[in-house]
């Protein structure tokens, strides 16, 4: 595949919450990335997609890890033994791994950058055998333009208010230690946090929801009716499973089982090694609750969030409740 120039402008940007890292805004939608993105943008955009790849997309903290496990198992004959012995990030790596760790581990002077680079999916995935399972938190427009026409893509969306709370609880451990939630929320709402604006991210996928290679689902639907979601996903992938097999997969994916599963709960990652996550308060798999955002929002912030939701949902039929 001939490489093409990255078509979007990248501008320098500095938010009030930025302490040591350079931030950039990308393209007309002003997506926020750490500065390292400048060096890697063209590689992501020109990443060579294979017809038998399966991609999972979604904004961070939208429940993608649980969905990741479901996708892998549905496409691997429900091989629970391998799923319990191989870390999910090895079975389904995050394409922009370097961006994630450069953001969360920016303060770690002892981070082995060379080791991280060698392990980066941009290096390992082109050599990987098919089929490949790949996750990305980047929006569709910054990924290969041939993606949807080449292979199957699942996009998982979640109520942005719940996302904001879950994202805050991860980012504050390294980046926002001295920033209260209200200040963070204002930055999140204004599109000044890594990978925001979230509504633009979601809308890009929603606009493509009728594409035959895109399966758009919400965290809320997956949580409320997991069996139905798994049946729909099976059909999307051209797989057939019995009701007994679906029930078994639901049990494997239950929140309590998932949170204690070391192959999916983040314990075997650099985030654990460098103390970004740990057992208890700072665990990677937190609560999995729908509507948990209300516990963090004052009455004033609730009204603020409702107005923001209404403004961004106007003229769309996105399935979020204000």
Share in β-strands: 5-15%
Task: Extract low-pLDDT stretches.
Answer: 107-111, 279-286
- Total number of helical segments? 17
The dominant shape is: globular
Strand order of the largest sheet: 5-4-6-7
Kindly report the average pLDDT value: 86
User: N-to-C SSE series?
Assistant: EEEHEHHHHHHEHEHHHEHHHHHH
How many beta strands in the DSSP annotation?
Answer: 7
Tell me about the largest β-sheet: 4 strands, parallel
Helix/strand/pairing category: alpha/beta
Helix content: 40-55%
Keywords:
globular; 7 strands; three-stranded antiparallel β-sheet; 322 residues; 17 helices; four-stranded parallel β-sheet
Summarize it:
The protein is of the alpha/beta class. It contains 17 helices and seven strands.
Any overview of this molecule?
The protein is an alpha/beta fold and 322 residues long. The chain has helices at 37-45, 64-74, 80-83, 88-91, 97-104, 113-119, 121-124, 147-150, 160-171, 181-189, 198-206, 219-224, 226-236, 243-253, 255-260, 270-273, 299-313, and strands at residues 10-13, 23-26, 31-34, 54-57, 133-136, 152-157, 214-218. The strands form two sheets. It has a four-stranded parallel sheet with strand order 5-4-6-7, with helices on both faces. A three-stranded antiparallel sheet has the order 1-2-3. The chain is globular and about 50 Å long.
């Amino acid at each position: 595949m001939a490489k093409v120039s990255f078509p979007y402008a990248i501008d320098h940007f500095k938010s009030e919450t930025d302490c040591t890292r350079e931030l950039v805004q990308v393209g007309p939608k002003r997506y926020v990335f750490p500065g390292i993105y400048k060096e890697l943008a063209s590689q992501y955009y020109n990443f060579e997609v294979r017809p038998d790849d399966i991609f999972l997309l979604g904004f961070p903290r939208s429940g993608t890890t649980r969905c990741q496990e479901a996708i892998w198992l549905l496409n691997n004959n429900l091989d629970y033994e391998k799923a319990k012995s191989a870390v999910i990030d090895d079975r389904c790596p995050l394409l922009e791994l370097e961006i994630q760790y450069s953001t969360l581990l920016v303060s770690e002077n002892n981070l082995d950058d060379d080791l991280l680079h060698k392990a980066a999916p941009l290096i390992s995935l082109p050599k990987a055998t098919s089929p490949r399972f790949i996750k990305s938190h980047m929006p569709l427009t910054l990924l290969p333009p041939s993606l949807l026409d080449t292979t199957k893509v699942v996009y998982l969306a979640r109520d942005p208010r719940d996302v904001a709370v879950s994202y805050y609880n991860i980012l504050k451990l390294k980046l926002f230690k001295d920033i209260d939630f209200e200040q963070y929320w204002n930055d999140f709402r204004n599109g000044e946090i890594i990978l925001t604006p979230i509504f633009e991210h979601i809308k890009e996928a929603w606009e493509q929801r009728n594409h035959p290679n895109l399966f758009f689902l919400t965290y809320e639907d997956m949580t409320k009716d997991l069996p139905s979601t798994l049946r729909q996903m099976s059909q999307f992938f051209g797989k057939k499973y019995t009701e007994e097999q679906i029930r078994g997969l639901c049990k494997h994916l239950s929140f309590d089982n998932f949170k204690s599963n070391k192959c999916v709960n983040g314990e075997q990652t650099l985030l654990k090694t460098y103390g970004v996550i740990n057992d208890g308060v700072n665990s990677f798999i937190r609560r999995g609750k729908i509507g948990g955002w209300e516990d963090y929002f004052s009455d004033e912030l609730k009204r603020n969030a409702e107005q923001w939701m209404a403004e961004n949902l106007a003229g769309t039929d996105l399935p979020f409740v204000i």
